[in-house]
Design goal:
There is one protein chain. The chain is of the alpha+beta class. The protein is built from 4 helices and 7 strands; from the N terminus they run αβααβαβββββ. The chain has a 7-stranded antiparallel sheet, sandwiched between helices. The N terminus is likely disordered.
């Protein structure tokens, strides 16, 4: 049973060990999985000061505007579009992103049930979880600032 692999990380270890542990864990879950790192920030911007979505408030306001317009209050939007991060690997990826600002974790999962390419990285005050390719899991984006829950801010 997969749960016997937990706890996976000793977060006092080096970042490279954390990445290799995350990759090993994912490969146990998904036999056809590849984990890599892009040495560029998830925003694509080299200067975080120029990122208009670096603040939690800005990204939530944009997500609310895109997802619901004025039809829903902020509280209702957050209640409807916030979900728990129940996947252990995504909780661990959140911690990796905090430890590695300016880099993007790329997780490719392909099996009989899914074909997904995740991009995960710290952007300002939060960590973004993106499925940026329509043919590989969606075009969806979530943000988290606590590693336990995430808010859906984009669906195409």
């Amino acid at each position: 049973m997969i749960t016997t692999l937990r706890p996976l990380f000793d977060y006092e270890e080096s970042n490279s060990n954390t990445l290799s542990n995350l990759a090993a864990y994912l490969c146990c879950l998904y036999p056809h999985c590849r984990v890599s790192v892009k040495d560029t920030p998830i925003s694509g911007l080299s200067d975080e000061n120029q990122d208009r979505f670096a603040s939690w408030e800005a990204v939530i306001a944009s997500g609310q505007s895109y997802m619901t317009g004025k039809s829903m209050t902020r509280q209702a939007y957050l209640r409807k579009y916030t979900s728990r991060i129940s996947s252990k690997w995504q909780q661990d990826a959140y911690i990796w992103a905090l430890q590695n600002p300016g880099k993007t974790l790329v997780v490719e999962i392909k099996d009989s049930l899914r074909d997904e390419i995740w991009w995960i990285g710290k952007r300002g005050e939060c960590v973004h979880f993106l499925l940026p390719h329509h043919d590989h899991g969606g075009e969806k984006a979530w943000v988290s600032r606590n590693g336990k829950s995430r808010v859906l801010v984009n669906v195409d």
